[in-house]
Structure formats: C-alpha cells, structure tokens
C-alpha cells in the first residue's frame, strides 16, 4: 500500500530535486565550457563569447596537441605510473589487511598501533626527499609508484571488509590443507571485488592527477606524467615560447588557433581516460564506498 505524502513532504522533495539540479549545473557547466572552448574557432574564443556550446566548430586545438611528442610521452608515463600504483596498492594493502583480519595474528595489536600513528605523524617534505635520495629513487619510476602505495586508512577499510566475510571459509580451507596465502588470493580477494574495484578507481584517479610528486622528484622531462605537460600548457601559459620556430608558433602568430583552444583541448584529452574507466566499475562503486559506513 502506497503511503500518501503530506504537503510538507512534497515541498521537501521538490526542494531536494531543485537543489540537486543546481549542484548538477554547477558541476557540469565548467566541463561543458572547457569542451566548448576547445571546439570553437579562434575568433570566437578571442571574443570571449563561448558559454556551454561550441561556436564555429574547430578541431585545430586537438590537431596540434596530438602532434606533440611530449603529450604521448606524458600519456605513456601516466598509464605506467597509474597501473603500477594500482597493482602495488591493492597487493600490499590486501596482504596487510588480511593479516590484521586474522584473529590469531601474533603482532596484530602492535601493527595496528603502528599504522594508526602514521595517520597522524608524517615525515615532512625535506626528510622524505632525503630518504628517497639515499634510496636512489629520485628521478626513477619507483618514486612515482612505491611511496604511498599503502595507506593506513585503506588498510583499515580492507580489514573491515575481510572481517565481514564468513570465518567458516577460512576454517574449511585450512581443513582442506590450504595456507593463509592461498586463502587470501583464492578465497578472500575473489569475494572482495566491489572493494578492489572501488579502491582501484581511487588509486588510478589519484595517480593520474598527480603532478606535485613529479615536480619534486623527477628531473628528466622524459619521465614526466601527462599532468606535467598539462601544467606546462595551462598554468605556465607560455605556449608561444614552448613551440617557438614550429608550425604551431606560426599558427598562433596568425591567429589560426588560439592558445586557449590548445589549453582546453589538452584538459579534455587528459580527462578522457578517467571518464572511460568509470562506467566499468560503476556497478561496484556504491557498494564499495559504503563499506566503511556499514561496519567499523
């Protein structure tokens, strides 16, 4: 039997819908504006009349960005960094969390205290840099992938999920001769797909958007991620000097393409891979983000 809503409930629902529509517009408009500028003609961009739809459709910004070797180098580096960061994060976090989820783990209390301390006390920027230097990690692949692959908060979330799995599964596996490593990889992790998919997405997005670590620890431009190329074009904004003596510099000089066309185009191209990944993990996302709220 349907429950009849009161006038107050209807007003509340309408206000909620209007508020959510407002939030949607606030979030979508900047993205639509960036997309519209990237696809509009140089003249219209210079006039500043672009809102949320392109005017005088023009792909010159994308054309010249996709000609740049730096873009492909940064894209390749970001894919490698994101893939390795995700693998390391899920692997090491799962092993640590599984150990804490076992009731008879000997050092469980000490390990938990140690992880908790790391949530409140950090090493600081300079000591961290000196540590990476002494470990010969500066300007290497590993400085972008290994540090930060284990987060105390993530370990505790994983532990909470593992503790919610039936304990009889582990006992039955032990009776059949399995060890903890086998149980972790063959039983626990396959039952944790929503958790793994959610935190894989978090790690990929975090790694893909990371530029500050590259600024601090990478010296070779050939190792820069895509975000450093984006920063160079958008934040520095000196596109003419970047491409001095090239075809792009000539196009910028005669007004065939506007610097903002190229800046907005590289923003869209940088966002596109993440937008493609999300639909594949969407079915796990809601369940995954609710894990920490269901059981603490």
Q: How is this structure best described in words?
A:
The chain is mainly α and 296 residues long. It has two domains: 8-58, no CATH class; 60-294, MetI-like fold (Orthogonal Bundle), CATH 1.10.3720.10. The protein is built from 16 helices and no strands. It has helices spanning 7-39, 42-47, 60-65, 69-101, 108-118, 125-134, 152-163, 167-175, 180-188, 193-209, 212-217, 226-236, 239-242, 247-253, 259-289, 291-294. Helix 4 (69-101) packs across helix 7 (152-163), helix 4 (69-101) crosses helix 12 (226-236) and helix 12 (226-236) packs across helix 15. The longest helix has 33 residues, at 7-39. It is globular, with a radius of gyration of 25 Å. The model has no long low-confidence stretch (mean pLDDT 85).
Shape: globular
> Oligomeric form of this entry?
single chain
Whole-number total of structural domains = 2
Question: How would you spell out the order of helices and strands?
Answer: HHHHHHHHHHHHHHHH
């Amino acid at each position: 039997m349907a429950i009849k809503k009161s006038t107050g409930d209807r007003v509340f629902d309408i206000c909620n819908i209007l508020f959510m529509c407002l939030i949607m517009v606030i979030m979508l408009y900047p993205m639509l504006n960036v997309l519209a500028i990237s696809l509009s003609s140089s003249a219209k961009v210079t006039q500043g009349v672009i809102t949320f739809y392109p005017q005088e459709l023009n792909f010159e910004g994308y054309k010249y960005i996709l000609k740049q070797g730096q873009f492909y180098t940064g894209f390749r580096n970001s894919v490698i960094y994101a893939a390795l960061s995700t693998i390391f994060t899920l692997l090491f976090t799962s092993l640590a969390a599984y150990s804490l989820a076992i009731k008879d783990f000997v050092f469980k209390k000490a390990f938990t205290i140690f992880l908790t301390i790391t949530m409140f006390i950090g090493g600081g920027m300079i000591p961290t840099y000196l540590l990476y230097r002494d470990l010969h990690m500066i300007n290497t692949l590993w400085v972008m992938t290994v540090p930060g692959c284990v987060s105390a908060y993530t370990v505790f979330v994983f532990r909470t999920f593992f503790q919610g799995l039936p304990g009889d599964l582990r006992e039955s596996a032990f009776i059949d001769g399995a060890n903890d490593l086998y149980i972790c990889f063959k039983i626990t992790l396959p039952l944790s797909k929503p958790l793994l998919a959610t935190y894989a997405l978090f790690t990929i997005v975090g790694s893909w958007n990371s530029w500050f670590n590259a600024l601090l620890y990478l010296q070779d431009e050939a190792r820069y991620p895509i975000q450093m190329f984006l920063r160079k074009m958008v934040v520095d904004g000196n596109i003419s000097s970047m491409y001095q003596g090239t075809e792009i510099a000539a196009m910028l000089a005669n007004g065939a393409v506007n610097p903002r066309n190229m800046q907005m185009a590289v923003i869209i191209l940088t966002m596109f891979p993440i937008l493609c990944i999300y639909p594949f993990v969407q079915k796990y996302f809601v369940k995954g983000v609710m894990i920490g709220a269901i059981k603490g």
